[in-house]
Amino acid sequence: MTNCDDLERPTRRFFLRDLGRGAACAGAAAGVGGLLASTGQAATKDAPAHEESFPTKDYDWTKHRWAYAVDATRCIGCLRCVEACKRENGVAEDAHHFRTWVERYVYLEGEEKPRVDTQADPVNIAAAGSEGRYRFANRYEDAKVEKAFFVPKLCNHCTHPACVQVCPTGATYKTKDGVVLIDHKYCIGCQYCVQACPYGARLFIHAKGVTDKCTWCYHRVVKGLKPACVEVCPVQARLFGDLNDKESDVSRFIRDNRVQVLKPETGNAPNVFYIGLDKEVC
Amino acid sequence: MPKHIARLIVLMVAFAAAAIYAKSYFTVDSFYRYGHYRADSVTDIASRDAAFLTPQACASCHALRHAEWSGNVHNTVICEVCHGAAQGHPGKAKVAIPAETQFLCTQCHEAMAGRPLTSIKQITVARHPPGPDCIACHNPHAPKIGATIEAAGDVHAGHESAATCAGCHGPNGLSPNPDWPNLAGQSAAYLTRSLASFRLGARKNDMMSPMAQPLQDNDVRNLASYYSALSCKAPAARTAAPSAPATATLAKSCAACHGESGRGSSNRSVPRLAGQNAGYLAAAMKAFKSGDRANPAMAEVAAKLADADIASVAAYFSAQSCGPNSN
After folding, report:
1. CATH of domain A159-212
2. Nearest residue of A to residue B121 by CA position?
3. Which of B16, B43, B116 is facing A73, going by the closest CB pair?
4. Which residue among B79, B103, B136 closes a domain?
5. Given a cut of 90, is residue A177 above it in pLDDT?
6. Which of A114, A138, A282, B119 gives A235 a disulfide partner, CB atoms 3.0 to 4.6 angstroms apart?
């Protein structure tokens, strides 16, 4: 039987990793010897001498721990979040590039598996009239629907992000306040991270040759604003807040509800907390 | 030590030194500051401008609309959901007035499998009377039929509180001093916004600020309703216009917002200028120019005006008859 603890703490993997690091260090020490002295100065770079707030003068990233919550029981599938995200972040307004998206799960009578579509489905694009606009078509109007619901999705800004682990250039990283970002100047477009992400949350911009992803609107967050998708949600299905603040929207949401995360078994430890999901949602 | 071994060691040391130098040369300074990434990229991302400005930004100019919206059921839907991101507005960027209202409204309100009724009121489009234009019946800012369209104040209560204002602004809202503004017939929305900004300190004036600070929300609304209801008929003694053709041309550019001859436009939070005291108008334009009064739209306009232009434009509007609203 699988123990939940095993899912949360892949201890064997960490043991092997540490073992590997130890071996590498020992080898390096033996081989290079005195040369290590010169790299000593590189190590001191880790601790900045000045105590200024970073990344802006009004915002100190060591004081926050951001998290996101989704109440799928409230979502109405209006896709205002998807449009706002594209506008806020300058994402191409087509049916192929989404930093956040909404899935619709529909269980028809007599069918075991749900039918799943997103705003990028051709039927829904046709209902919107063009690729720059988004709406869900009322395609199950005449069908016998047993159960249906919408699920907003976005980057989970995991505590142990697989995408950051595989990046060969240090172009993607996790900030101290818990946001996973991409440095477009350093991204070489290898797309390892796109494959590593278990949630399909990363997209590739062919025009620029770089990977892109949700930033929780980091540029808004450092200014004290909420992410655009949270701001425009008309039914408060999306919440954002600081886990360090026990009275923030997200802290209260997690405290007041039995929350779950997507694919906990991958060990990424997501920071987007859901309520109202069915077992088929992953 | 054998010669060939010494040579090998020298070679290895030289190679290692070259490698270390190359690494420090090609690695940008901020790379290892906080971890295996470029710290400057965090600053780059953080310094981008927000596109969605939130309703607080809208309220600073559209006070009346904001009041109407925030008191009604649509107050969970921020302005920019329907009007689009307000980045660059006010200024060059225009904010959209939605045209296809049925498409827009039914994005949320069309009855659909999966859309929870507990979240939102829904309609079946084919069965919902009567036509494609939702705003023919529903006020988008207060969509419930019969909801309060405008948060109007009580004129009689306003009349009573206005006793304190009469000392400077005249018993009928027509000020005896040309440097103080007439209030009679001014747009209620503009009066509400002005009083509210004096009260909250967004606008400052040695005489007005202490008068406005003790006011309550209700007082502001009542006073605005009272003064906007008064007749703005100018006193007969007003001097004739020094109507140079150049001034009339200049004043035309004001008409886009302030209405024909400054008599007000459909945007009621923009003040009427016709019949206003010239001294006050000139002082206001100078305040916009110097930045003492913060208003991005007016600052842009006033920056282009020389002092002589300001005086002649003020005289022009002051001499206009403040007849009925041009709209």
Report:
1. 3.30.70.20
2. A76
3. B116
4. B136
5. yes
6. B119
